[in-house]
Amino acid sequence: MSFWDKIKESINIGDRHSFLQRGEPRNSSLYAFVDVEIGFKDRKIHDIGALRWDKAVFHSNNKQELFDFLNGVDFVCGHNIIHHDAKYLFVQAPCQWGLVDTLYVSPLLFPEKPYHRLVKDDKLVSEQINNPVNDCEKAFDLLMDEVARWDALAEEKKRIYATLLYGFPEFEGFLDFVKAKAEKKSVLADLVRTVYSDRICAHADIERIINEHPCELAYALSLIDTTDHRSITPAWVLRNYPNVEYVIRLLRQTRCKGGCEYCHKAFDANYNLKQFFGYDQFRTYDGESLQENAVYAAVEGKSLLAIFPTGGGKSLTFQLPALMEGRSVHGLTVVISPLQSLMKDQVDNLAEKGITDAVTINGLLDPISRSLAIQRVMDGNASLLYIAPEMLRSKTIEKILLARHVVRFVIDEAHCFSSWGQDFRVDYLYIGKFIREYQKKKGYNSAIPVSCFTATAKQKVVQDICDYFKQTLGLDLHLFASTASRTNLRYSVIHADTDDDKYIMLRSLIAESSCPTIVYVSRTKRTKLLAEKLTRDGYKALPFNGQMDADDKIANQDAFMTDQVRIIVATSAFGMGVDKSDVGLVIHYDISDSLENYVQEAGRAGRNPHLDARCYVLYSDSDLDKHFILLNQTKLSISEIQQVWKAVKEMTKHRMRTCCSALEIARKAGWDDSVSDIETRVRTALAALEQAGYLERGNNVPHVYATGITVKNVDEAHKRITESMLFENDDIENAVRIIKSLISQKHIAKAQDDMAESRVDYLADILGMSKSEVVSAVERMRQEGILADSKDISAYLNDVGESENKSRRLLERFAKLERYIIGRIPENVLKISCKQLNDNAQNEGITTATEKDIRTLLYFLAVKGYARKREDAAHNLEVALMADMETTIKRFERRQEICYFALDWLFKQSTPITGEVNKNGIQFSVVELLNDMNSSRDNLFGILKDVRLEEVEEALLYLSKIGALKLEGGFLVLYNAMDIRRIKDNKLRYKQEDYRMLNEFYRQKIQQVHIVGEYANLMVRDYNSALQYVQDYFQMDYKRFVAKYFKGERLRDIERNITPEKYEQLFGALSDRQMEIISDKESRCIVVAAGPGSGKTRVLVHKLASLLLLEDVKHEQLLMLTFSRVAATEFKQRLMGLIGNAAHFVEIKTFHSYCFDLLGKIGNLDEAKDVVSRAAQMINEGEVEPNRIAKTVLVIDEAQDMSSKEYALVHALLKANEEMRVIAVGDDDQNIYEFRGSDSTYMAQLLKNFDGRFIEMTENYRSSQNIVAFANTFVGKIKGRMKSTPIKSVNKGEGLVCVTFHTSDFMYQSLVNELVGHCGTGTKCVLTHTNEEAAIMVALLRKHGLNSKLVQSMDGFRFWNMAEVRMFLKCVEAGAHTPLITNEVWEESKRKTYSVYSNSSSLCYLQRCLQLFEETNKAKYLTDFKEYIFESSVEDFCDLQNADVVVSTIHKSKGMEYDDVYMLVSGPQYVTDDVLRRYYVGITRAKQRLYIHTNSAIFDLSKIDRRVVDQNQYGMPDEILLQLSHKDVNLGYFKSLKKEVLSLRSGQELYYRNYFLYDILTNKPACQLSHKIQGELSLWAEKGYVVSSASIRFIVAWKPKDAPKEEKEHAVLLVDLTLNKQL
Q1: Model-level pTM?
Q2: For 99-112, b where at least 16 C-beta lie within 10 A, e where not — what string?
Q3: Looking at residue 310, what is its pLDDT?
Q4: Secondary structure of residue 348 in the 3-state scheme
Q5: How far apart are the C-alpha atoms of 628 and 522, rounded to whole Å?
Q6: pLDDT tens digit string along 801-813?
Q7: Angstrom distances, CA of residue 1044 to CA of 72, 833, 1037, 1040, 1060
Q8: What's the pLDDT band for 25 if we cut at 50, 70, 90?
Q9: DSSP string, 783-816
Q10: Nearest to residue 321, comparing CAs of 223, 470, 450, 222?
């Protein structure tokens, strides 16, 4: 059915001849104008206005009275009367009047800009609404002008129009009205050819066009008649007659084969080259007419791919055809480019040539400039539109393109389509879909041609681009590629090993040159530093990088282009498309990351082919490592895409579609806000998911509409707005502009769809206002009644049942925390870490506080102007109130009241009848809620008066942010919202196969870095070979190129994102089994049972390095958990040795420390009892911020030490994050902490529950052959072991195992005798079972003149309680006014503490502690330091280097190794697996020799080299050392002695008398011994031992656990007592 047949049927007007009654001549002087107002909802006539030829006026809604008024009239006229008014007037009976429609003839008669003053689009321009008489007057004026214009037409054109348009009711009434005369159709084609002989193709098939598209031909000819190429066919005409563009193309854009005068001139690119650009000829490349050939292909409508070298005239190749088609068919060419600076530069360059046809719409534009640019495109003032690919998602962009005749899409940087290109961009893959949808909406039967451009492309990239357009659009691209190279560029590579060498060489090269210079660096930060350094040295330079402020970028680029500055230091973001012909020097301070980029960047030099230019690379092999690190940081890994997919699944759990921002998705995915370029990464992940068919991303559509106008005209609106109390002076102008725009488009209230012109984002775009300004004005006009209220917000409430109570409880919880936070902000500024603030809140009774809630609240307070907030990557805060405390509290309390009312109101709206919550959401408006609130007499609090719109909006936003409800639409879409529809099932996972294209791209990026490095090395050795290498790279098949230049091992080298030298350094010395663990990138769970001395720590550190350097793991995605702070510190130190400063950003924590982080508390061992369990519970209940647990890899050290609590935590982490991999390394044979719940069977549980891979590491690199054999025999006694393979010694030495069996109860003397007899080289250690045994050994060794160091734990003693530590911490806290400890405060605190405790023997522990903290923490944060000392113990900082002998309990020896180990094994009463494992740990500490002294039979069956039986009976040593703990001193005695105790120092001698210890200097008592130790001393006395001396071991802080909070701590002495046996 034809378009008109459908219309006839819809308005019931019957046969055309009965409708017009052409057989009866009509009197043109008897006419009337009619306008009908129709209700938006009921679609019925609400009002009718009519104006008769005799000036009589009709105004009523009675249809019969109208017909009576029209009696005697021959013509009824109106604007859009055919398809609007007649549809409602002539429903029952056919029309008896001739209908004259002013709409359809208007663009025919007024096709030239500025068009007719009374028409905008298809509507009459009016400042009144709902006034049909006024519209009749406008239509009358328009018709009179149309008649006058018709009369002025040449007779031939009148006949052409009449012949084409008679028979179509849209035009026939007008033609009758002006008494037009039609021509015979047989002569019409010749008439058209004659009249338009020099303006259309002489061989066009006009006969066919007349028969098939007569109306379209009329509109096309009217447009051809215009003298201004900026005149365009209105968008409404193109919608109703889409073939107008097709007809114009046939007449003026289709070159005839026979040749004619028009085609010869119109398609003459050489002629137009001269006309537009003033050039006599096209550029050639070594005689190749590449540019000219590509231009002619475009002019002839072909699609093409052009590969032009940098500076090869690419821009002109698409600009010229665009300008030609802008003139010939008034078409628009859309240029899609990823580079905003390129867009601006090209628009400016054209403007300098006097060509103002180009427009760019991009993110650098302010709202007003954006509005003007959009208007220029819509008005036809642009033939070239530059946009970024992401702009294709904008509904405004889609709308303005649909209104224009798009003749070509130009895609710059086309290599971005290919995963084999140097800059693959997933958002480019949306371009084809957009063009396809655009063509569908325009109704095109043939494809719009595309032109693709790139400066460099391998064969595979070319094939990918061609395949893409063939598959998506059915286009065949014609290839235009140059084989010529730039002959005016001279390349050089200079080796420079250090940065200092590089800078000296850079300065030297610049000093030798006087031409404009570009210096390329790889890092954003370096642009500024290097520019400043050059400027200081007298060479003025400016920086340029993609992260700079837009204004600074533009200013710096302009300064360089206009020669205000000669040197620019830039990243690769600079120069794309920048056409500065006199650049004579390009220096790569850092080599590019690919040959493509290097050739492009070097090609910025010598744009003038007559200028000889130089291109230098200052090269160091470490440059490649920087590129690999940067690639790993920017790479979007499969796990990150899986995290985004998981977030989308969560957000679409109840509804398949969601509207949200990139930042919301990032947070839901668990990404930290500090991740660089976070929104771009989310959009890329979404594009990848869309490409794989998991979701569909629509246009960015805020569903907010400004509809339902209630005022009659602009004057009335202006009056009401001005008089309203709701509008400030600054708001009035915006509101009036909005209402004027809406009123001028009469039928706006009909449309609430994606293309509606009442959409807030569209109004913002065309009026040059921000979205927030438009929303604010629209909602105030709703409140004032100028606009009808519109329910455009959806509220989704919490789960059914408990939902209202849950939301209320949530509100109460957040209110309590918010009140606390506000009350803690001082007058100036609060500087604190998020964790510390949360810890403080919990300690002060806000037990439900979490860091997640605090950040939510602070974000809200900042957004709504309560406070200013700054936060760094470590979540350290600076917060300041914007108003005084009293005002802030009142505002907070008022908001809470509004929130309670709003919740009650919404739940009542949700459950009006059934009492069940509506899961589909409640449709409401802010104004509706506001009015009910202000009119309510029985609200909960009774004090809500004069509530303002902003207050309701703020309360709703607050409820949304805290999770009490979810809002969509309305004012909440002020951000860049994305419309996302999930397609695939919620249970599906994003798979490796889906990641194939991105993975291939990253694989290519790795190879490209190696390839460019090889080029640099070749250039140093052989210039010509290097040039041949480059030529081969671009011209050979890629696989053949790789095979030619990278043979054997080198082929494997270029697959790794690390240089061969670095790889060898990191992994060259590892064993095959160790490399098996390093190389496993697939297994989700790896459990490694690592035997003693197997290099467990080494493997873990190298695995961390591998994860960061060779796999897809970024530092923030990696978590390592250990069981001790000393282990965490060691791993951090070792990792720093491998990968440098990058190790600082890896999270290596103890289980307790990590769990304290999750709870948002400052960790200390006193509170550590249930922290792991609480953290696991919070994860399971979803109470932990996603970014704290969304890790890609979890590494567990000493996994055999996991208890049920640690395993529950690991299990919760893995369950909460299905993408997390876990690597657990431990030795089940070394589980010696069963007494605290450790159980190595949890390693087996991991294997079972998470389908793990089990690996045994049984190569021992520590111990000699005999010791390993002895250990294997001994460990065989343990039941239920995981390892089945015996330990194998890699050490070639035989070693010695000697066991001395004693019959004596005491073996101290015998062991020491043997040790003294073996004195010599090598490290020695004595291992005991108990602390008491260790202390006795120390005293005995000292008596023999041996310097021993004791490693043991002390019950109840915490390192952070040491006096030295407390003083240092006090100094730091006093000086640190921010979360970050400055170097000045740190050093001054050290100076003070070291000075006060210079003669303290325990100061060394603090010194070692600070040294290790400095080494492992690049930035010193107060919370990190507190956590560090709270988790540490004294033995962590024992310096064992200068000890002759180390004495330790077996428990404390784990992880240590010594040349000689002496074990003291007193016979245990019961031999259990726990006992066997403990002694196994002791045995495997020995490297060369193992000596065991025992009175037990436990070693009888073991393989022993030397067995000795000692029948001697030994007594206790003459001297005994007792180390007293808290239990051994009367703690209450110290309460009154704090000052006296703090004046003492560790190591100071005391004297003993009657259970008291006295200060030697003052003779005053300093300590009283407890009853417990008094009893023990009595027992020793019975054996003949008396106290001979005493000394202070530690001075510590203490207070009773049940003491009041306000009670201060006391200073306590922990002493060593030496007992001697009386003879």
Answers
A1: 0.75
A2: bbbbbbbbbbbbbe
A3: 64
A4: helix
A5: 11
A6: 445 677 888 899 9
A7: 94, 57, 11, 6, 19
A8: low
A9: HHTSB-----EEEEES-TTTHHHHHHHHHHHHHH
A10: 450
Interatomic CA distance for residues 1402 and 1393, integer angstroms = 12
Enter the tokens of residue 1279: 């039941």
Least Cα distance to 450 among 430, 470, 464 occurs for 470
User: Given the DSSP bridges, would you call strands 1585-1598 and 1610-1621 parallel, antiparallel or unpaired?
Assistant: antiparallel
Dihedral sign computed on CA atoms, order 893, 894, 900, 906: negative
| Torsion angles phi and psi, residue 1546, rounded to 5 | -60, 140
pLDDT of 1568 reads 96
Element (H, E) at 1150: strand 1147-1150
Question: Phi and psi (nearest 5°) for 35?
Answer: -140, 135
**57-60, strands of its sheet edge to edge:** 57-60, 45-52, 31-38, 75-78, 98-101
Whether pLDDT at 748 is above 50: no
- According to DSSP, the residues that pair with 1616 across neighbouring strands are 1523, 1591
Q: How far apart are CA 1092 and CA 1490, in angstroms?
A: 15
Portion of the chain with pLDDT greater than 70, in percent = 90
Q: Mind listing the pLDDT tens digit for each residue in 814-826?
A: 999 999 999 998 8
913: pLDDT strictly greater than 70:
no
CA proximity to 1402, closest of 1350, 1472, 1463: 1350
Residues 6+ apart with CB under 8 A from 285: 309, 312, 482, 484
Taking only the tens place, the pLDDT of each residue in 589-625 is 999 988 888 888 888 888 887 889 999 999 987 888 8
Residue 345 confidence (pLDDT) above 80 = no
CB-count burial class (<10 Å; 0-12, 13-18, 19+) for 1088? buried
Q: Please check the confidence at residue 1354 and state whether its pLDDT lies above 80.
A: no
Kindly state the tokens that stand for 339: 């580079």
Q: What is the DSSP string of 384-435?
A: EEEE-GGGGGBHHHHHHHHTS-EEEEEESSGGGG-TTSTT--GGGHHHHHHH
Rounded CA-CA distance 403/411 in Å is: 21
Residue 1121 pairs in a beta bridge with 1149, 1196
- Model pLDDT for residues 1182-1237, shown as the tens digit of each residue: 888 787 888 889 999 999 999 999 999 999 999 998 889 999 999 999 998 888 88
Are residues 1522 and 1619 in contact, defined by beta-carbon separation less than 8 angstroms? Answer: yes
As a whole number, the mean pLDDT across the chain is 86
User: Could you tell me the end-to-end alpha-carbon distance of the chain, in angstroms, rounded to an integer?
Assistant: 127
Whether residue 707 contacts residue 778, with contact meaning beta carbons closer than 8 Å, is answered with: no
Rama region for 596: left / alpha / beta (φ>0; ψ in -120 to 50; rest): alpha
Structure tokens at 885: 């405390």
CB atoms within 10 A of CB 928: 18
pLDDT in tens, 1097-1112: 999 999 999 998 888 7
Q: Where are the alpha helices (DSSP H) in 1113-1238?
A: 1125-1139, 1151-1159, 1171-1180, 1186-1189, 1204-1216
- Burial of 1251 per CB tally in 10 Å (0-12, 13-18, 19+): exposed
Contact 875, 851 (CB under 8 A): yes
Residue pLDDT, tens place only, 1409-1435? 999 999 888 889 888 898 889 888 888
Q: In terms of Cα–Cα distance, which of 377, 294, 292, 392 is closest to 333?
A: 377
- What are the tokens at 1509? 């039986």
200 DSSP 8-state letter: S
String of DSSP letters for 460-511 = HHHHHHHHHHHHHH-PPPEEEE-----SSEEEEEEE--SHHHHHHHHHHHHH
Q: How far is CA 2 from CA 15, 172, 212, 220, 241, in A?
A: 15, 17, 12, 20, 12
**Which of 1032, 1016, 1031, 1046 minimizes the C-alpha distance to 591?**
1016
Please tell me whether the peptide bond between 114 and the residue prior to it is cis, using omega within 30 degrees of 0.
Answer: yes
pLDDT for res 873 = 65
Vertex 1347, ends 1344 and 1348: CA angle to 5°?
100
